[in-house]
Amino acid sequence: MAKSETTDSWKHCYSPSPNTGAYIYRVNVAAAKLGVSRATIYRLVKAHELDLVKIGRRSSGITAASIQALLERNLASG
Question: Where is the Helix-turn-helix domain (predicted)?
Answer without folding.
Answer: 25-74
